[in-house]
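Thread: "does anyone have the structure for this chain?"

Original post by V.I.:
We have the sequence but no experimental structure in hand. Need at least a predicted one for the grant figures.
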Amino acid sequence: MRRFHFRSRTTTDMTPWEAYQAKRRNHHSAKRRQQALQLPAVSALRRHNQWRNLALVLVPLLVLLGFFGYMVSPAAKVGQISVTGESVATAQGVIDASGLTETDPVLTLFFRRAAVAQRIKQRQPAVAAVQLRVTGFNHIHLKVREHAALGYVEKQNRYHLLMADGAVLASGTATTATNYPIFSDFTAKQVLPIARTVHGFPAEIRRAVSEVRAAKGGANPYRISLTMTDGNRIVADSRTIGKRIKYYREIIAQVKGHGTVDLEVGAYFTPNSTTTKK
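Reply from O.Q.:
Generated one for you, tokens below.
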């Protein structure tokens, strides 16, 4: 029996049409294999895009839900209010003057700080400045800075504090604090300049001034009399007392007993028991 051997045909053995058909089949086969390899990457990209689109919808929604949940919770309303820096004004007085209540949203305070501070200063004349801070979720801290208190003025047997800005506190007391002098017989226009002058005394002397009175003796309408806690009295001119007060301690250190230190023109001491000048 005769055997026949077959061999694969090459492109050189094919007709031009057969070679074109073979090349076309090989191209489609390679393209299908390439597409099959790219399918996993396309699927992963689609999944990534789906998660991204879902996140773009869910994240803002969750943020809005959280915001509205916070706004209706007690944590969004004003809670505890604390005050520091007050000495003339009271902490409760500052809180009442602020107008803040437990129904006020905390978030609005970030835009109302200036208005709250201005309201406190208007209702509490002793307060010069207010700093409002929010700590924690809803703890409000009011840090105040007060005008310097210069002394007291007497009105209808009540003593009212005179502040450095010229304000006289409406609320008066029956007694005075020992660290502030009393200013008597001065007009409203006169009292602030002399009070500021006394406030500028050296601290040791300023704390020893018990009362400042408008004396207006003789031909000098600017004459004043200062009663000291050490038992002495000073007579001076309100226009020059700020510069001449420095001689007071020097004179007192050289004499015995109590008397009057005259700083109006010169600088001398008159004991209470005699009119002799020393």
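V.I.: this helps a lot. The domain at 149-271 is CATH 3.40.50.10960 (Rossmann fold).
O.Q.: and The CA atoms of residues 86 and 144 lie 6 Å apart.
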